[in-house]
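FORM 7B - TANDEM STRUCTURE REPORT

SECTION 1: FIRST PROTEIN
SEQUENCE AND TOKENS:
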Amino acid sequence: MELIARTTKQLGNAIRRARKQRRLTQGQLGAHMGARQATVSTLEKGEAATQLRTLMDALAALDLELVVRPRTTAKIQDLEDIF
């Protein structure tokens, strides 16, 4: 399932959803990433201070990839309804 994220909060929600689909706790995901549970929590909250490396580690641990493409014409409100 593909999700579109335009904000850090939406991206954090997408990470949370993927983690839960794999039935992992934040601590377990953190262990796969080599990070603390608190780091996963910060990422899932969409806090702007999250490092790019942390995001990439989480995506790798969840067997996900980041795709960069031109924006769709959907409004941000439409996208938030997905989450």
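SECTION 2: SECOND PROTEIN
SEQUENCE AND TOKENS:
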Amino acid sequence: MRYRTLGQVVLTMALLTQAPVAAATQPSPTGTLPAACTWRATALSLPAGETGLATATDHAGGLSGTATQGSTYHVVGWQNGAYRDYGSAVAPIFAPTVADQNRAGTIVGTAAYSVLGSTIIAPFKIEGGTLTQLPLPEGGYGQVTVMDITDAGDITGYVWGSGSSGERRVVRWPASAPGTVIFAPGPFPVELPADADEDGSLLFLGHVLRNGVLSPLGRLTGLEFSWADAISNGHIVGYGVYNDKHVGVYWDRQLVAHVLPNSSYNLSNTNPQFTVNRDGLITGRIDEAHGGNDLAGTGYGVWDKGQWVGPFGDIGVDLPATLGDDGTVGGYRIDGNRDVHPYHWRCA
């Protein structure tokens, strides 16, 4: 499941044609709630003078992300508390985003550089400590977003032409053919891709493509708008407007929609949005009635298969960006100077 911030999806909202609203609401799913616990925060090390954040995990305690010093950017990782610098992605002036990491430790993402109104974007992977730029398909597809890497090493993303418009094409970089890129088979809906699952299923803003079958995500009475964002083991999370309130949304493995109790979201900043692991554990923004701050976009909570568990960490400063299948959470805190510092959390 890829890392993406709410600020990156503002432009996608106008592009989604909404499905019809269902006739009746659905009951909440059932599941085993995690035991009550305290989220214990641990700062991840960085060299003096650097700022950074963790955005991906290998689901075994290892984390990866990015760090910055002045105008120099690089990809970094942490394993058992040990810091590792993987170097600049493409070039030091390219700002990288780490989208995902698999259990073998391979890291994938994109690096971007803007100049004179144009943006150059390059996909990359880091395997065995070596950073490699991924190829783009022919045909004028100069823009790219990497979404996901499976444990087998297959990478999924999408490409489009220069400029903000143009057809998005889903692509894969197959592990069986290093150095190549192929177009993924459809059928595809009109909306943008959002994420990819371990089994190869593709998530779009309002549909799932699984084994060649395109299925719409479920709707609810009162859910006027909704947009999916992340998928893991068939569990899907996103956000929407329910009875005029900004909420998080969970779609179970049968694609039935459930509003996340006590949830909210904020599209005006780049703070993390909702994320989910293979067991259906979810982190995301909480509403102001439960301690969130909609203006600042802070205050996060935890849900289990759509059921409310409780607040996450220090709701004033903790920003969870990635949720491992082992329960490890990676992310960052923002200090009084608006600098970001990488952290990880464990529920104990």
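SECTION 3: OBSERVATIONS ON SECOND PROTEIN
The chain has one domain: 6-347.
The two ends are 25 Å apart (CA to CA).

SECTION 4: SIGNATURE
Preparer initials: ____
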